[in-house]
Design brief:
mainly beta; Methylamine Dehydrogenase, Chain H; 5-stranded antiparallel sheet; 5 helices
Length: 518
């Protein structure tokens, strides 16, 4: 049986059990899949020969996984996971996620959960705490941190949602300075936009007190996208993404990713819907840009109208460098001869100062008729970005593959399998502190576990443009008694210094969260 990984499809609930997406940017990218490399453990026909030939030994050492301190005492009745991680300097990080989680039967949608945050200072993680201020308002029993971002010198923000007494989600943001979190506050202005609930899906913080958050809210017409900015430590009122409602004629829009290169200069991306399922034009990808504190009009990604003929598409990730250069990646769905959706095609687009170029489609290793997705993009400088994603391999070995591609001086290289990666997998997290120096993480399903979907956590590192073979995340084997774990987020404050976090499964079958120790 071929395992199908859950995806953030525009016409489905975008919240996955293993966690939502995080800010895709320079400092951190958050917001599953590969194999194990230790001493050649990742071998087999699934690895592309060209990629394997270029594989190199990792240039830095990952810390060992450790259980999030104090979380087991909180997580008494359910599952937990880190969903997003951000580091402002080496050994100084913050992370957030959920605990006491339960799911709707037969789905991966959370039905209850509480939100937590945890901070690392000088290589030591403090005890996890429930998000301050949420206990009194999370009457509906469902909350989580979806995204964390940190600026230099330890100024961090987190965003997510809680559920009020009426069962509606409400978006929140919170700030911290060097690991000391302040109480979460509801995003102001959302009630004036719509009364049907809201949530923050992505945050980005290029500097202290000058951050951005984005997500979705519900009004009489359906789901819409919003953005909000922080100026001098004060959050402004949320505003509807300009022009998005006019595009979103079927009323199902969402902002999936936001990234800020500098204060007041950001980009956001996601999807909107124009017609019901099967009517042509199911979902379209959009981008919007902010310059000098003013958000411009949302637009369909240039060039995709002619390509996205079946109409299932989204921007999955946006990343902006400090000089205003941004890139976005995602997927679209061309029509097939029998009228059914059979595959997706990844795309990337880039631009500067609010002007986006025509999207480029990437055609892959085994022909067009396979699903392909870009999960995450990271741009440390203008014209130098990296993207990671997933391609279904219906080739000789019948396994799915993780891929990576890098842009150098504005030109994208050929996508290739990550060295040492095979079997069912998907790298959903990426962080690049400088050009050609990146880290990716996720989880892979060994062939023996394809029927039950149990995964193992992996990380892979790129140094000076060359990827080392993926490796099982150190220390997770000792924790993962239930044999199901994933890296959910990676963050690299500088080249060669990266941290990872995610979840593992204990002997009782409950998911527990882990972070990187020394």
């Amino acid at each position: 049986m071929r395992m199908t990984w859950p995806r953030v499809l525009p016409w489905q609930d975008s919240r996955r059990l293993a966690g939502g997406s995080a800010r895709r940017g320079v400092m951190v990218v958050a917001a599953a899949g590969i194999a194990v490399a230790c001493a050649g453990l990742l071998t087999g026909a699934g690895s592309a020969p060209a990629a394997a030939a270029r594989a190199m030994t990792a240039a830095f050492r990952w810390g060992r996984a450790e259980a999030v301190p104090g979380l087991a005492a909180l997580n008494k009745t359910g599952d937990a996971s880190v969903t997003s991680l951000a580091c402002w300097s080496v050994n100084n990080c913050t992370a957030g996620g959920y605990y006491d989680a339960a799911t709707v039967s037969g789905t991966s949608t959370l039905s209850k959960a509480r939100a937590f945050v945890v901070a690392e200072r000088k290589g030591r993680w403090a005890r996890a705490v429930q998000v301050p201020g949420l206990a009194a308002v999370n009457a509906g029993g469902l909350a989580q941190v979806t995204s964390v971002s940190c600026a230099p010198r330890g100024y961090c923000i987190a965003g997510g949602y809680y559920t009020d007494a009426s069962g509606q989600r409400q978006g929140f943001v919170m700030t911290a300075v060097k690991g000391r979190w302040r109480a979460a506050v509801k995003v102001s202005g959302l009630a004036a936009l719509g009364t049907g609930g809201s949530e923050v899906s992505s945050v980005s913080c290029p500097g202290a007190g000058v951050c951005a958050a984005a997500g979705s809210y519900t009004d009489a017409a359906g789901s819409q996208g919003f953005v909000t900015n922080q100026v001098k430590n004060v959050w402004g009122a949320a505003q509807a993404v300009p022009g998005l409602a006019a595009l979103n004629t079927y009323g199902r829009a969402q902002v999936i990713s936001v990234s800020c290169g500098s204060a007041g200069n950001c980009a956001a991306g996601g999807s909107y819907q124009t017609n019901p399922y099967g009517a042509g034009g199911l979902a379209q990808p959009f981008v919007a840009s902010e310059q000098n504190g003013v958000w411009g009009m949302a637009e369909e990604v240039p060039g995709l109208a002619a390509l996205n003929t079946y109409g299932g598409a989204q921007v999955s990730s946006v990343s902006c460098a400090r000089d205003g250069y941004c890139a976005a990646g995602g997927y679209f769905t061309p029509a097939t001869t029998d009228g059914e959706w059979q595959y997706a095609v990844p795309f990337v687009t880039s631009g500067s100062n609010g002007s986006w170029g025509t999207a480029a489609e990437w055609k892959f290793f085994y022909g067009d008729a396979v699903p392909n997705y870009i999960d995450s993009v990271s741009c440390p400088s203008a014209g130098n970005c990296t993207a990671v994603g997933y391609v279904s391999d219906y080739g000789p070995d019948g396994q799915d593959q993780a891929f990576a591609a890098s842009q150098k001086n504005g030109a994208w290289g050929t996508p290739e399998n990550l060295p040492g990666v095979r079997a069912e997998g998907d790298p959903t997290s990426l962080s690049c502190p400088s050009a050609g120096n990146c880290a990716a993480g996720g989880g892979y399903i060994p062939e023996a576990d394809l029927t039950n979907g149990r995964s193992l956590p992996f990380v892979a590192s790129q140094t000076k443009g060359r990827w080392a073979s993926a490796e099982l995340y150190p220390g997770t084997t000792a924790l993962d008694k239930g044999k199901n774990a994933q890296v959910r987020s990676v963050s690299c404050p500088s080249a060669g210094h990266c941290t990872a976090a995610g979840f593992y499964t204990d002997a009782k079958g409950h998911r527990q969260a882990f972070v990187s120790g020394p």
